[in-house]
């Protein structure tokens, strides 16, 4: 049996041995690393999501780009396996230290569940889920929302942290990629055509005919280019062109060096410290090193200074360099009428309004549209809803100009609120802001000040 | 932030980089390696299954010991995560180059599906599923059978090969381990007791009292030992004692060097070559190097010699050293009455016998017991059933004395036969034989003679 080149065999065995050796290292907060499942789908389709994840995993953790194929199994498996090598190669080619992993499943959530639980090898296994913010939640089919929120709950159940990334333009550029592919195809056709024409010219002796060929050549050469503009025009006529331009720029925003500025961390719950660790790792990167950390925490209005000092000493124990600490004393005050109104209008279409109906109709509606937000529920979590609205006010006030916002992800017990209300929370919380990471660790400590 | 010792950090990064580097190696039959998901449950509970898998994965492939926790998720995850480190440590301690992986799932099959699809990292991902033979299939609840057969189908769907291992005594020694634990506890108690007594003696000056302590000591020392025998007796009185003895011996059989003898390979379908590759790898191991390969293949009775020559040249192209090739010309003849009778008696309890009933009752029965074997089905696959029975006859005739049997796993299209009939096939095929590996590759070639 031919075992392939000895170098290959060697690199395999050493990779395996290294991985095995790792398993002997005792688990300890000291050697926690962000090991991320990033739901990029096809890796090339969400560059910004991949770039930001790579920024805090590269060399200090693990990054697995994951894709879930939903549909008839045999077909999915075929498609999945045929693309494997190509997609992994793309990552390598683009110098992204990440693995590509894919599963075929009956539904998206099942697939992600498999990846969360089973992917990785020994110590190199995920402890953090990174997903893009679902910006189309208002229009998306309900099952999609259920899957999306369900995945977040699954992650917590498996003791895996969650990072939701939002950039205003969204991540998915597959549309653009399609157009680019088409253009490339055309370009290649054109070149092929030119080539053949040249050949013919060389072979061809007689002037007259050569002239003829030249004409033909020009014709053939110009036709595709016209087509080229054409295909772009059609896009623009679809009012996608300018949008695509913005999208492409946005999708590259984490590739370039981040200028002087701040990463604002709003650490509102003790989640073990992931919310603090990720921005800290970012500041160690070349691209982000000109960004200063500003830490925002809640506190009692009447003891701002004490809390500030306490926090400062904690951070210095963690050896986290920070530019500034702000203790926010007025998180729990009511949001102002306008912003509350915005929230109410946002959820209006999903409300059941059962209280202003007689019991039987109310019950009937509940049965028919169980996904709707009931008045009872809304009342029960009113305080939390207010908090999200209020927080956005504060974020607008303090962090509007930050390069990046890192913010504790609000969570609600499973089943305690409807998926749509939860999405509304995330929406209002992160509305009109710079790029946001909503972070929630798995409550295991990831920071330590023992040495 | 404290990143743990620099050596740890280094080993992590190098493990990761190695794993990443591997992904750049292009996939090729030349660098196929058996990368196995082994369903050991808790690694220590099925030593023989783990040992044999380790024998053909160690240094030449990947071995992942897998456990599925079925039940309420939160509980499962808790139990799972708490045991993780301990079980991996056990593998390392016992010099087994294997990873421990576990998932929590609603049912066993779901869990295995996750592991088959998602486990591993880059190139180090499973391509072969190794499971023990389900010897209790006759008594086991139907859902267990469904899961078991279902898992085999899932593996093929995911283009993953399957190896089913059968040893007459079975693999699971958890019972025995429990008893051992108890005994150890008792032993420790005893030692603790002795120790305290000794201390007392030292402190204690006066003869008389020391004497008294001595007595007490004896008493206390003897009591546990009596208990010790006691707990063994109880086991024996449960008629498990001798059985356990056999079990323990059987479970260690692949740990010791295999004497002079043969590994008989019955290669009955071209499955890509896994059926040939695994025994070949075994012969490269110290433990197995005194075992010669004997290859058995089907052929036309009237051209035995030609087929023999053809096979020989193929094997030599693969550079597989073999002691002997047998072309079996009479696989497809009818089995003799006795052995067929054995098979019929085996399936009798699961048969529906609808044909000897009127249509309505037949339909009714079908609805009530859909898992039963219908006459129609039995007739449809009669030939295949005969084949299994006949093969066992041949195996008895040629390979009864082999140290190990490697045999193509019979497969039937999903839904084409009932799970119970399939189990009956496996049962009759591997009945009263030395340890058997039923192997079926994923039909991708794993052997090559290009250089």
Automatic annotation (TrEMBL), chains A, B:
Q: Where is the SLC12A transporter C-terminal domain?
A: 46-451
Cross-referenced InterPro entries = SLC12_C, SLC12A_fam
Q: How does it sit in the membrane?
A: Multi-pass membrane protein
Q: What is its main location?
A: membrane
Domain of life according to the entry = Eukaryota
Task: Give coiled-coil spans as residue ranges.
Answer: 176-203
Q: Where in the cell is it found?
A: Membrane
Keywords, A to Z, come to: Coiled coil, Membrane, Transmembrane, Transmembrane helix
Q: What is this protein called?
A: Solute carrier family 12 member 1-like
Gene name of the encoded protein: LOC103608486
């Amino acid at each position: 049996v031919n075992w392939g080149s000895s170098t290959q065999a060697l690199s395999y065995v050493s990779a395996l041995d290294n991985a095995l050796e790792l398993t002997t290292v005792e688990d300890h907060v000291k050697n926690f690393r962000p090991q991320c499942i990033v739901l990029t789908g096809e890796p090339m389709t969400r560059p910004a999501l991949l770039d930001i994840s790579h920024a805090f995993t590269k060399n200090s953790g693990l990054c697995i780009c994951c894709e879930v194929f939903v549909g008839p199994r045999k077909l999915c498996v075929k498609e999945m396996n045929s693309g494997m090598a190509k997609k992994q190669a793309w990552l390598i080619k683009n110098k992204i230290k990440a693995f590509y992993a894919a599963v075929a499943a009956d539904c998206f959530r099942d697939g992600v569940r498999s990846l969360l639980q089973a992917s990785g090898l020994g110590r190199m296994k995920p402890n953090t889920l990174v997903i893009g913010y679902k910006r189309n939640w208002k229009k998306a089919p309900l099952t999609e929302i259920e899957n999306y929120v369900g995945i977040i709950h699954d992650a917590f159940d498996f003791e895996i942290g969650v990072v939701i990334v939002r950039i205003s333009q969204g991540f998915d550029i597959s549309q653009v990629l399609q157009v680019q592919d088409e253009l490339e195809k055309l370009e290649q056709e054109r070149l092929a055509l030119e080539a053949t024409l040249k050949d013919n010219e060389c072979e061809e002796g007689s002037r007259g005919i050569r002239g003829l060929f030249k004409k033909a050549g020009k014709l053939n050469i110009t036709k595709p280019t016209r087509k080229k503009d054409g295909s772009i025009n059609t896009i623009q006529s679809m009012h996608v062109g300018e949008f695509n331009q913005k999208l492409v720029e946005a999708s590259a925003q984490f590739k370039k060096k981040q200028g002087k500025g701040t990463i604002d961390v709003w650490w509102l719950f003790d989640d073990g410290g992931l919310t603090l660790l990720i921005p800290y790792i970012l500041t160690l990167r070349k691209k982000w090193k000109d960004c200063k950390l500003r830490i925002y925490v809640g506190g009692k209005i009447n003891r701002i200074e004490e809390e500030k000092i306490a926090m400062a000493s904690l951070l210095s124990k963690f050896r986290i360099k920070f530019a500034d600490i702000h203790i926010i004393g007025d998180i729990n005050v009511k949001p102002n009428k306008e912003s509350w109104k915005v929230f109410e209008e946002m959820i209006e279409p999903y409300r059941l309004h059962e209280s202003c109906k007689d019991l039987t109709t109310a019950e009937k509606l509940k049965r028919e549209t169980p996904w709707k937000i009931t008045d009872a529920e809304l009342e029960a979590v009113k305080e939390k809803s207010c908090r999200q609205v209020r927080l956005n006010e504060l974020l607008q006030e303090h962090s509007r100009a930050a390069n990046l916002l890192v913010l504790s992800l609000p969570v609600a017990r499973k089943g305690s609120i409807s998926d749509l209300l939860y999405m509304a929370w995330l929406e209002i919380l992160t509305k009109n802001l710079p790029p946001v990471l909503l972070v929630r660790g798995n409550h295991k400590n990831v920071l330590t000040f023992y040495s």
